[in-house]
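Sharing a chain and its predicted structure for anyone who wants a worked example. Both blocks are below, sequence first, tokens second.
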Amino acid sequence: MKTISRLLLIIYFVSGNLMLAQNSYPQNYFRNPLNIPIQLAANFGAVRPNHFHMGLDIRTNSQENLPVVAAAEGYVSRIKVERYGFGNAVYITHPNGYTTVYAHLNKYFDQLDAFVKEMQYKDEKWEQDITFSPRQFPVAKGQMIALSGNTGGSAGPHLHFEIRDTKTEECLNPLLFGFNIPDNVAPIVSGLYWYDRRFSSYEPGANDVSVKKSGNTYTANIIYVNSPVVSLAIKAVDKANKGFNLGIYEAQLLMDNKLIYSFTIDKVSYDDTRYINGCIDYAKFIRDKMSIQHLSVLPGMKLSDYSSGSNGIINLPDDTIHNIEIVLKDTNGNTSRLTTQIQWIKTSEGIVEGAQTIHPNEARTIKTENAEINLSKNALYDAINFKMSERSDSDAVSNAVILHNLYVPIHDHYALKIKPNRKLNDEEKNRLVIELNYGSDKEFIKGKWNGSYLEGQFKRLGVARILLDNSVPSVSPNWKEGALIAGSSLILRGKTDIGDVESFRAELDGKWLRFARIKDNFVYLFDEKCPKGSGVHTLKVTTTNTAGNMNTQTFTFQR
């Protein structure tokens, strides 16, 4: 019998079916990580700013502190405590080769919580990233490991849940593991777009096509295009039975009954998640908050596991009418179809390349009189006629440098150098920050001197300038000086004129005290370090801002 099994295994390898086995994930091995039915607020692969959503967002009925349980037996292999991102997170490694992740938690189970607290006081640091051996914190399937919450980069109470390949750390689509989540709703299409691809999907950009709906079937009138080389994109959402907008799992594009492009969102690594910007119409996402997914491969998009087949570029050699079909599916197999036709109407219009045209896979340096940007060969997903200019700025110690526009994504960090517009003394040089304004927000970094230029690293385009920061950061308490505190916590509100509070240290009567950072607040929950009836206390707080300016404040209170 053993001989036959070995023979079958050899045949299995030789036949080329090993890949199918690797993609055949265990069914019903993992249980629901909550003790309430799973309702999704977001699924795997949904479009997020600069990343795919890498797991499931499971609703907690707008509540916090619901028990979170281990999805299967294993051991706690890692925890994270951070201001943004996952907030408080637990990683459990399982004997079947997978790791599950539970994020935005309020509190770990008692033994783990005590260990983490001990490490925080030992390191005198609230943020932590701790790994564990298999024997330290073993867990059983269904064992309570934490309480749900709203910590980190969370906009409301929920549980973020991931399944990863332990060896590669790739995130896998949890909906492929057999969770019982009823869903009989097919994806919903609300828009179709075409792009002239002779030069770039960015220039001149999207052309809207009206879509009509009849059940799960959609139609559009014939698409007349003025280019022989085009691509398509779809605006669509998946709907679970409870009505939340979810991301599309699978899409296929056929022309004249021939498959020319498809994508399936089965797995993504965190190293590759930023490639989402090469899979969507980034300008529409930033400007209009619309998630429009390309049905083609941009030349700088290197996420190989996401798309298959040909690149989705539609080449129209003549003015013949061609049939187009788009098929969308969710993980339950619910299917929608859109049919239309496309025809090339010949014109001589087109985008002309300029002296500062940059193509994907091409490193370039662009300069103005007082600034320089260095883009790596991985920076762009598609070609652009890069525009860079300067304008005077009375509030800055440099000109404002306009880096193309906000609506073209950058994949990796670029180096930006800016020259100040006046002579600075040594003290002023140490108080400079580079501000990048990218429309919806601003980013501030300290920067480093490179000759006569201040240099910084960024991953978005926008308007950059150098600011002189003579201000100091501060915190504001939620109690009156010397007051008796009857509540359960101390809250300090952080404030800076420019940038952020980069470091925070609190000492209670001369000893480090653990404050958690929640957005812009610093929060201490009373514990054995400051019990009731312990009298008058002095709290010394030292903060440092992005420019490196430091401030120390002292407060008193009674307990």
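Comments welcome. The chain has four domains: 24-176, 188-344, 357-468, 474-558.
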